[in-house]
Design a protein that fits this description.
Number of domains: 2
Order of helices and strands: HEEEEEEEEHEEEEEEEEEE
Structural class: mainly beta
Strand content: 35-45%
Largest sheet: 11 strands, mixed
Distance between the termini: 27 Å
Number of helices: 2
Radius of gyration: 20 Å
Shape: globular
Oligomer: single chain
Helix content: under 10%
Length: 266
Amino acid sequence: MKFNTILSFSIAALLAVGMSFPAKAERVCEVTDPTGTPLNVRNSPNGRIVNALRNGREVYIIEIAYDGKNRPWAKVGGYYQGEYRIWGWVFREFISCYDRSSASLTQQGVQFISPESRPNTFISEFLQEKLREFDALTLGANYIYNFIDLNGDNTPEIIVHAVGQIFCGTGGCSTFILRQNSQGYYEQLSEIGISHPPILVTNETRQGWKSLIVHSRNSEVFWVHFNGREYQGSYGNRLARMPSVSGKMLFAREYRDYIQDLFPVR
């Protein structure tokens, strides 16, 4: 599909008209369309499509406006080949913003664990069944996973982060925790419906199970604790900042910066 030429200004032109452009150390946003498809860029809030931006593209918000249905839209710009460009209007809920200077999650006591490097047939079948529940097999999905012992019984649980139109919303995507049953088969223990990597498996425990820290939209962080039956997290467990904890970091070293390509559900 072809799009109209994007609006583009050189740095000199921006300065000439008195328009400032952001330094790369300031608050930055990323395209995080939960459908996994390029995010449409429009010439006005909910207007004509003029371009598209892929997930992960860094952008800066210039202006916020609302359409006739009171939905928020952001006018965004960003750097492309060293030049700052004004892209246009995108749906605000499909971009996530954070302070670049505070985005690093590396800290003492946290060990990064590489995700599994091969697709897992059982996990793929498990997620296919989830898609069937919504009659959405054709939409597909992707996943990344790790084996981690969460309750100290020397039998690892599986933490699966799923990405796709069915598994993601504006706040995040679904993370599933699978536990081995008495017959040796894995089954779902919990679903954390609003989450983004990195996911931290901390050394703090509740009722014998390690507590998790997950991220949601705009790199906000939340505790997720075991309640005796399942892992349960909510916006009531939001943290003002990343605490000093020890444990294991899964899937990413930075917010939504996946450490490897995700596996397709097939």
